[in-house]
Amino acid sequence: MDERQLRILRELGELGSVTAVAEALLVTPSAISQQLRLLQRAMPVPLTERQGRRLVLTDAGQALAGAAIEVETALERARHTVAEFVDRPDGEVSVAAFHSAGSAFFPLLLRSLAAPDGPRLALADADVTQDDFPPLTREYDLVLAHRLEHTPGWPRTVTATTLLREPLDVAMPADHPLAVKRRLTPRDVAEQPWITAHDGFPVLATIDAIATAAGRRLHIAHRINEFAVVAEAVAAGGGLALMPRWTMRPHPALVLRPLSGVQAWRHIDALHRPERTARKAVRTVLVELHRAAGTIRGRG
Length: 300
Fold this sequence. Notes:
Blueprint lengths: L2 H13 L2 H8 L3 H13 L6 E4 L2 E4 L1 H29 L4 E6 L1 H14 L7 E6 L16 E7 L10 E15 L12 H4 L3 E4 L6 H12 L4 E5 L3 H9 L4 E5 L9 E4 L7 E8 L7 H19 L2
Parallel strand pairs: 3-4, 3-5, 7-8, 7-9
Antiparallel strand pairs: 1-2, 5-11, 6-9, 6-10, 6-11
């Protein structure tokens, strides 16, 4: 039993014939008869009976047709409620981001969406491996995720829009011998100790690419995911590291140098399930994320 079948029964009670119902609903009489048969199979008592050439409702059919009015009213009320929810500009929007993206984007979002009639943000940090970003879209409306330039794209189960294509530079203390160079090659940095992320995180693939281009394994001295902590470790002489050019605040004791010979870029993408952007509030936040990306890029 579904809404369409109940409506057909209700119309049959009012119009008195299958042909009239078919004309009213813009379908064929055979389609109406088929739906009535399906509805009858779900009922323990007859819903219709023949009176001459006419098909009329039995007492049970009339009772169910009356209930159909209540069902249609409830469904219409539900549709109206959903429509109001979808069109609300001030609905809550949950956003998750990995740490450096959160540090760069969250303050800009909070300031730009501070008006009382705008979306209400619910922000969260999520330091996960690249493969674990898409599942987060079950829990959050928008997920800021990162992947390297040459890695596979996101699965079709999510919609992705690129906010930034950000260079990854080599970070070192300002007094490091390599700091005098304007640009570095894999051979320049191959003999240095390195600070990099744990397995499964995108930056590690660029470290592997540097090693391949230099023709030797790099010495990984420390494994640290959080770039703010990485910056302090680099400043203390713990080794070189790859650092994002725009989303990290400049550290007074460090310099960043671009790297040639490998694809040292990452994408910062906004992931979401397709149905999430049916809500006006989510679309508003997505627009603000793109605007914030332009501001972040302009700092470089």
